[in-house]
Every structure is written in structure tokens, then in C-alpha cells.
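Friendly challenge for the regulars: who can give me the C-alpha cells for this chain first? No prize, just bragging rights.
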Amino acid sequence: MDRKKVKYEILKVSLFIALVSAIISFFVGEYIPALKGIELKTIDLRFNYRGPVDNFADSSKIVIVAIDESSLDRAPHRWPWPRSYYAKLLRNLKKAGARVIAFDINFDSPDKNPEWDEELRRAIEEAGNVVLAGREVKGTTFKSKVIEAKNLLRNIFIGTKGSQPGIVEVLRDYDGVCRRYVPVFSAGDTIFPSFGLAILLLYYGLTIDSVYDFPSKIPFENGYFKVGNLKIPKFDDKTWLINFAGPAGTFRYISFIDVLDDKDFKTNDEIKYGDINTFDDPEFGLLHDEVFKDKIVIIGSAIPEFKGELGDLLPSPFVRDESNLMYGVEIHANAVATVLEQKFIRRTSGVVSFLIIFMFSFLSFMLATSVRRLRIHPEFIVEILVVLSLILLFALWSYLTILAFENNFILPTVSPVLGGFAAYLGSVVYQYLTERKQKKVIKTIFSYYVHPSVVNQLISNPHLVRLGGEKREMTVLFTDLWNFTTISEAYPPEFIFNLLNEYFEVMTKIVFKYGGTLDKYIGDALVAFWGAPIHYEDHALRACLCALKMQFELEKLRMRWEKEGKPLLYMRIGINTGEMIVGNLGGYGRFNYTVIGDSVNLGARLESINKEFGTNIIISEYTYEKVKDFFSVREIGSITVKGKTKAVKIYELIDVLTLDKKLVKVME
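First reply, four minutes later:
Bragging rights claimed.
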């Protein structure tokens, strides 16, 4: 098979295996939770590699007011605080110019002092820009009015004029990490915005009707959530991916008590040491620093655990100080900031992801196949190189996914690598089947030409075989029988065939014994050569030993034939060494592994010239130069080959000169 056909076959196989690998990897990656979890983990790695956004706390439109340890220690009342605290907080934030005020706190039961509840309700109405946290109650059928669901959302203030409800449940992925954000929750025919979406609706002056028409589900338009004129790219049908600005503490945190601490409020510190007034002090107060001016203010817990009430730590993609925990209030803040900053993280569509997996699988297969074609031994080194090259390819793809993520774009990671691995396995199977086919071809072709042990060697080392034409220095041997035509005319055909078979069987075994390749039988003639398919540096030496052994064994045959009354056969041999072209010639399913060239023609000429000199074995000067230290010879003279002007010296090969170690090794 020529190189173009081989390349075309490999291309077809690679496309097929890449397609199968891509299909398997795409669906396995999409529907097996464990692999989806790994894909999500790679997103975490990309976040941490990218790192936090520079100076985000100063530039962000979101401020977190935290119920922290300092607030609990400095507040005059013990926890739980009276609702009047929250009313005062609302009024101070409104005075400071906060654009949206969102409570990530559930007021699920009345205060012990009803007047304080009423005070907070009035403060909410006065502010007119408040988001109240609600808890989703699944399996409950609500009527179309939100106000009627207030008790079921576990917040007694939901429905208060000037407020917007928002469900604070945060979605966790398979591994418990919060990465995605749900824009809406529904119960029966009622749809509620999530906490973050409620904040955005107030910020942009929109209502829930600008997103939904009751009781319809969320609009699906080219992979986006529609919020007024905003389009938020979907991560899946129900969520968008939060573009976390950084690990916990990336947003600006202000203690709850510092916002309360105006001239009319006495903290525990002020009771002991005098007024400080962190909120409205003219020189350093938060009111005059315009910290809250036109900002979204989210109030929530910043205490890991407080009697099981305020604990609100959740796993996030970012890791800081060996922990990925983040307060829920900051997760909501990140979700809102993703939309405010228009830093949406987009992912590839299903079609594009499949094409990426297909191309990755194709490249993996082609890379593995190409590396395996390198002639490096032992073979396990090649396989190590294959694995290393695939690891390099995987690393390069991982680097590209990181670069894409820095531009807020997610490329699939696990599925392409899975596809590449599947393609690698496909390349292993393909190599096995190819080698099996190759071994079968080698066995079919060379079992006629060389000894079975040589065939096995070729099967174990197929790189030694080149079936196409190749120029090599080799030695060729021609034999013919004296007066065989006269003998064949005197005996029946069956007798002649049996005699020749007996003769050729012995001669062929000798050729194989000395590592020769049987070229062909031509009537009563035999042609063999040394140096291919396995190359021997001592090819001339082997051919000469073979020739002497042939004459010796033929003499033994004659002694037996004489006793049996059979005709006696005598053989002429010609040997030449030189450059020849060796390869598989033929067509239409019939091939012959043979040698051609001027050096071959000279070998044939030497065989026939034995007639003129009455010799049995003639070698050329080229062979003589290779073996002169091992054999006794007699110089006969020179001949000129037809078509050549330079005469060639010829020698009669007589016997072994000395039992040199090299000779003994070959003879064994």
C-alpha cells in the first residue's frame, strides 16, 4: 500500500474514532454527575488561577452591612435584637443615599414588642427600596398575589408597601459548592424572584412583570435570561454562573453597629467611654463619607455560628487561607455584581462543545498514531512518548481554557480530555489490529522466503520490514544444475519432480540455516540473497558458507543416490556482493519479494561462467574483498559484463581458510 493510501486510511480511521469518542464523551460528561462535578471543580481552579478583581471593594456598587462579632459585643441589647434596630438602620441607610437596601434576614415571627414590628414596617414604607428575604416553600399552591404568601415565605413583613420579596435559597452543586444562581422560584401559579434578582429589579426600577407574565415560565431566548433590557447568559436552563470577584472578604464590609451609631444611639463603648458616633460624625462618619451613596446595601450575617441562628457560611469556588467558605450574604452580592458589572461568564453551546471534543479526540488519535510511527526501541519508550505528548496536549488545552476564562468564557475541560483519552484507547486498539494485520501479511509473505525463526523475528520487529523498493548492499547467490536437461529427458516427469523436490528441500534448509532469503526456484535453479529483510553486516560471509555447505550436502546426496541407482546431480554457484534494490514486486494479489539490479545480474553471470572454467563456486572481487580473511580461493581472471566496460576479477571459492570465531558463530 503506497503512502497516500496509508495516510488516507489513517485519516478515515481517525475521523471515525474521533466521532465515536466525541459522542461517548459528550453524553457521558453531560449526564454522569461525578464527571459534571469534576468539570465544576475545574471552574474553581480557573477562578483561583485568575485571582480576585483588583480594588474591587472600592469600585463596587455593593456594600455589605454585617451582623458581626463587633456588632453583637457593642449593641446594648442582647441577641435577638429588637426590630427597632433594623428600623433605625433602614432610616440611616436611606439618609446616607442607599439606592437599594436588602435584608438577608428572615423575620419569621413577631417581635416580643409589637410596637417595634410596627416601627420597622413604617421604616420599610418610608424607605420604599427594600428587599426582604423569603424562604421557598415547595409543594404549596399560592394565589397570584404575593402578599398572600407572606406567612408561607417565613417573613412577616413581606407584602409591606415599598418592599420586594426575594427568595434567599442558594443553589449548591453536586459537591456542595455555590457556583450558580437561580433567578426565580415558583410555587403553583406564583413566581417569586430570587434575592439577587429582586435587588436588581429595584435597582433598575423594574417589576417582576418585566421578567415574567404570570403564570408563564422563564423566557428562553437564545440562551439568555431577560430582565427588562438586560440579557443574562444562561449557564443552564435555570441558572446563571456567578462571576465571583474574589474569595471571602472581597466586598466592603461595614459593621451593623457602625451604621446604627449616630448621635441618638448609644453603644456599649459609648456608655463606658463617651460618644464616638461612627455613622454621623462630621469628620469621619459614614454618612459624610458617602460610603452608601447610590449603592446597593445588603444586610446579613458575618458570624460563622451563633446559637445556630446566624451561621451562614457556604462553600464557594475561591480558596483563602485553605478555606473556601463564604458568607451567604456575599454570595448574593457576587451574583448581583455579576449583572451590575456586566461581567457575565459565557459557556460554549452544546454544538460548539461537541465540535471541540471531536477536534480534541481527532488530534489525540493523530498524535498518538504519529508518535507510534517513530522507530524507537524498545517499544515501551514509544508508548511513554505517546502518553507524554498527550499530557502536553491536555496541558495546552488547559492553558487555553484558563486564557478563555480570563476573558469570562468557559471552554469545556473534562469532556475533551475524556474524548482524548477515548481516542487514545482507540489508537491502541487500532495499533493492535494494524499490527495483527501487518504480522499476518509478514507471515504470509516471508514464510515462503525465510526460516520460520526469521519470520518470528520480523513479526516481533515489523519495523525491520520495508516492502517497498529499497537500495541496500547485499549478497546474491545463484545456483544451477549441470546437464539437467539431458537427465530430465531420460526419466519420467514424476521421477524428476521427486528428485528436484528432494534436492531443493536440502538446499533451501541450508539457505535458511545461514540466514538467507529464498528468492525463487527457476526450473532446476535456485536464487537466494542475504541482507534483507533482516540486515546482516556479514551477508557475504554467510552466502559463501552457504555455498560450501550446499556443495558438501549435495555430495552426500550423490553418495546416497548412487546406491539407489538415481542420476547424480552437480551444481554450479555464482555469488556477488553489491548494491541492489530489494522489495515486493507484483500486482493483482500476486507478489514476489526479490532483488533487482546490475549486481544481481552479475551474480547470475558468475553462476553460468562456471561452465567455461570447470568450477563449482565463483565469487566476484566485491564478495572476495568481504571474505578474503576467512576462505581459501583461487583467482581465475577477469570478465567483462555485458553493458559494462570495467572488467571484474573473479575467484573460485575452495574452502574455509580457518575456523575463526566469527565463522564458527555463523556456522552454528
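The chain has 21 helices and 24 strands. The radius of gyration is 46 Å. Your move, everyone else.
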